Amino acid sequence: MKAIRRFTVRPVLPEALHPLSDLARNLRWSWHAETRDLFQSVDPERWTASGRDPVRLLGSVSSGRLAQLSGDRRFLRRLSAAADDLHDYVTGDRWYQAQPSELPAAIAYFSPEFGITAALPQYSGGLGILAGDHLKAASDLGVPLIGVGLLYRHGYFRQSLSRDGWQQEHYPVLDPNELPVSLLREADGTPSQVSLALPGGTALHARIWLAQVGRVPLLLLDSDVEENDLGERGVTDRLYGGGSEHRLLQEMLLGIGGVRAVRTYCRLTGHARPEVFHTNEGHAGFLGLERIHELSYEDLDFEAALEAVRAGTVFTTHTPVPAGIDRFDRELVARHFGPDAELPRIDVEHILRLGMETYPGGEPNLFNMAVMGLRLGQRANGVSLLHGQVSREMFSGLWPGFDPAEVPITSVTNGVHAPTWVAPEVFRLGARQIGAQRTEDALTVGGSDTWDAVADIPDQDIWELRRSLREQLVAEVRERLYASWRQRGAGTAELGWIDGVLDPDVLTIGFARRVPSYKRLTLMLRDRDRLMDLLLHSERPVQIVVAGKAHPADDGGKRLVQELVRFADDPRVRHRIVFLPDYGMAMAQKLYPGCDIWLNNPLRPLEACGTSGMKAALNGCLNLSVLDGWWDEWFRPDFGWAIPTADGTAVDDDRRDELEATALYDLLEQRVAPRFYELGQAGLPDRWIEMVRQTLSHLGPKLLAGRMVREYVERLYTPAALAHRSMDHPAARELAVWKSRVRAAWPHITVDHVETTAVTATAELGSTLSLRVLVGLGDLAPDDVEVQAVSGRVDSEDRITDGTTFPLKPAGGPDGEGRWLYEGPLALDRTGPFGYTVRILPAHRLLASNAELGLVAVPAEELVEGAGVLMR
Questions:
Q1: Among residues 22, 130, 119, which one has the least CA distance to residue 79?
Q2: What is the strand order of the sheet 804-807 is part of?
Q3: pLDDT of residue 871
Q4: What SS3 class is residue 222?
Q5: Is-cis flag, bond preceding 814, omega within 30?
Q6: From CA 306, how far away is CA 298, in angstroms rounded?
Q7: CA 587 to CA 581: how far, in whole Å?
Q8: Is 46 part of any domain?
Q9: In what residue span(s) does the DUF3417 domain sit (predicted)?
Q10: Residue 124: C-alpha distances to residues 174, 354, 708 (Å)
């Protein structure tokens, strides 16, 4: 019979064991091996059965065992040491506390998903894992971050396979009382709530759950509360589920409700109020509107409040394709804002203008969350060097008149949280060389360019480590494959073959990620005969472990999964290639260390970063990847192999897949497999081991989330905090008025005359020209603008390809026609075709970039002819 109501019955811990509850509730255990070992020793069998989740473990362990442990002096000493260590970790000074005093007092970090641990399944893929790693690294560094997200009652789906290999989705209900979270409560003990006004006079209420991620609080909003009607209760049902209105409500709750949750948390705990708000992808973009609405009560009009909010906002984009951005119908957005709904003090037209695609090629009736994020954030970044370039091109319509290279979107390349993803065996090998504390510091704080101690590890030790990790993976794969086949309906008697799946001495390739079409899960199947030859080679066989989830609404992705599964089901090769369903953090932590090669073959440049290969590399796995995302930035032949790409308009998709698959097979046959099996004089694959050593010592330090978070602090958070402090109410009003004046005057700004006076008779390298420019500034003054010269090499169409900009100085004016004279030297500092131009940009001390307004004035066509190219 089915229960009509469900309760979570918790054991009462003996007083001596009370610290176990604190250790279980702080998610630092998910990356702290000693704490996990302590929980395992409570009851090893129940630890495994609980999915290595301390909260579930403590909910199932017997009272007799607890009584026994409360009298075990050896266990109590270990418990006391773990509790003291956690206390020191969360209260002691770390990297951030040793930095200059102008750092932000606090940063609020918003993301639609967070991958902290498998015990808190609130993530779908790379965006969530990155957000989780960001929080963990911030905690390790002592950065005063507050995380903000949603608590999804069904999380993301669990994946299984039908008998014929079709993806099946399951949505188990998550009881927050069984998760490592606790309710945020008011001083009187009642649960804290935030509410959003909805059209028609109703409201959306949400409670705030707190997950403690080391030093970092993570606030998760949950709409499944009794005060809501059935529809509103379901707003936080599933990650990326539902239709447009459902998604809009989720994003309003995340952004608007999230700011209110942060305010509540700071009020109740005394935590410093955030000076910087970081929007991790566009889903949380409405947070800026809520902060503008707050300022409307402080006698700031919309434009001034917008400037105050922008100053302290950082926006990170993660998608390299417009299709990956949430866009809503204009009328849907309009209905949810204004006098009868949410943010009544803001004119709906102001809100709509922030998100509308009012640029060439845009859809004028669609509200674009990334566009709003860029307009609400004074600082923006992509997540790898290449992705920054792609983002500048993709969003260049917001800055008309500027070359993509000048679009104010920078990049901070992602990193991964090494203590989460580095296998304990790898950590112990490092600790043997330099000690546990130095190894921990190297993996968390980072800061060094190389890990030199890796050079001293004997080849034999590296090779034994790699084989041990491969052996563990083989055992894990067999266990998961058996469970999968049982789910698919197979009987025990027909699964004896699984005992022979994979071989711990065979070159092992991993491929695991989400399954959108651009990641090309099935590229390896392009020539099946050739793949079979690789898998079954008599001397140099290869084995492949594949995992990945297709979005529930993506039948194309599901067909790719089915195609791969059917190939892996073939009795001829099923001992050499496997597909593991339900890819998640628990599987990944075994998969990355156990592979020798990490394969990634997306369509370039559609991989924004792709951090799975980073996690593999930190365990000594070599990358075999298309030059996309982070690999485009840091590839070296010492670290792995680059798959040649055929990107470009001249090749259709089918031909491109054929060319790149052939290149992949060639690399595996001619370079990768021979190097793995080639033995040196000592009977070891010396050249392979050297590549592992180079990967760990030279690539490893770059890949750390600690490096990434330090870059955010130094390059984005601190400038944003300083801008926030500068943008007090008078400054915000001043800037808003100035921008309005400049925009109104800009149509009358002109470059009227340009001339050069040669200091030398010929245009030779090292010579200098004197540049004189007459400009019309209309109602503006020289203090409102910067007149620049831009010079550099020119291409065959006279476009400047690597321009250098420098300001010209006012030398007189206004003349009788109201024109101003600007002058400056133009140095001919490079050979070859060379040219220059001049332009006028708005200039103000409170701008983060001269391109901020998207306004630029350049010479008219008749001035350009012949005047701006000096050498061809």
A1: 22
A2: 804-807, 785-793, 834-842, 869-871
A3: 44
A4: strand
A5: yes
A6: 13
A7: 10
A8: yes
A9: 13-120
A10: 15, 28, 22
The tokens for 308 are 């105050």
Same domain, 602 and 632: yes
- pLDDT at residue number 9: 60
**Residue position matching structure tokens 């529809």:** 231
Is residue 706 in a domain?
no
**Residue type (1 letter), 165:** G
Give the integer Cα–Cα distance in Å for 671 and 822: 60
Query: 681, 701, 716: which is the final residue of a domain?
Result: 681
Give the span between the Cα atoms of 786 and 290, in whole angstroms: 34
Q: Which residues have C-beta within 8 Å of that of residue 89, sequence separation ≥ 6?
A: 28, 214, 215
Count of the separate structural domains present in the chain: 4
Residues 555 and 646 in one domain: yes
Work out the angle at residue 705's Cα, subtended by the Cα atoms of residues 378 and 518, and round it to the nearest 5 degrees: 80
Identify the pLDDT of residue 762: 58
306 and 387 assigned to the same domain: yes
Looking at the fold, whether 56 and 118 belong to one and the same domain comes out as no
List all residues 6 or more positions away from 48 whose beta carbon is below 8 Å from its beta carbon: none
**CATH code (residue 787):** 2.60.40
Separation of alpha carbons 13 and 9, rounded Å: 12
Write down the pLDDT at residue 10: 65
Q: How far apart are CA 511 and CA 548, in angstroms?
A: 8
Specify whether the CB–CB gap between 840 and 808 falls below 8 A: no
Q: pLDDT under 70 in the chain at which residues? A: 2, 4-10, 649-650, 758-763, 862-872
Rounded Cα gap, residues 57 and 67, in angstroms: 15
Please give the Cα distance from 565 to 472 (Å, whole number).
23
Question: What pLDDT is attached to residue 6?
Answer: 61
Same structural domain for residues 675 and 787? no
Q: Tell me if 438 is assigned to some domain.
A: no
633 shares its domain with 756: no
Which helix (DSSP H) or strand (DSSP E) does residue 754 occupy? strand 750-758
Residue 39, φ and ψ in degrees, nearest 5? -65, -40
Burial degree of 322 (CB within 10 A; 0-12, 13-18, 19+):
middle
Phi and psi for 582 in degrees, rounded to 5? 65, 50
**Region at 559 (left for phi over 0; alpha for psi -120 to 50; beta for the rest):** alpha
pTM exceeding the 0.85 threshold for the entire prediction: yes
Query: Residue 484's closest CA among 125, 733, 160, 236?
Result: 160
Q: Are residues 323 and 257 in the same domain?
A: yes
pLDDT at residue 802, rounded to an integer: 79
- Long-range interactions of 756-759: CB distance < 8 A, separation 24+: 756/826, 756/870
How does DSSP assign 652-705, residue by residue? Answer: -HHHHHHHHHHHHHHHIIIIIHHHHH---TTSS-HHHHHHHHHIIIIIGGGGBH
Which CATH number do you get for residue 246?
Answer: 3.40.50.2000
If phi > 0 it is left, if psi is from -120 to 50 it is alpha, else beta; for residue 632 that is: alpha
What SS3 class is residue 48?
helix
Question: What is the DSSP pairing of strand 366-368 with strand 327-329?
Answer: antiparallel
Report whether 587 contacts 480 (CB < 8 A): yes
Rg (CA), the chain: 29
User: Which residues have C-beta within 8 Å of that of residue 871, sequence separation ≥ 6?
Assistant: 763, 832, 833, 834, 835
Q: Are residues 232 and 199 in the same domain?
A: yes
Q: Give the closest residue to 408 by CA, choosing from 851, 857, 853.
A: 851
Residue 423 belongs to some domain of the structure: no
Question: Of 411, 428, 454, which marks where a domain is finished?
Answer: 411
Query: Which residues constitute the domain of residue 471?
Result: 463-681
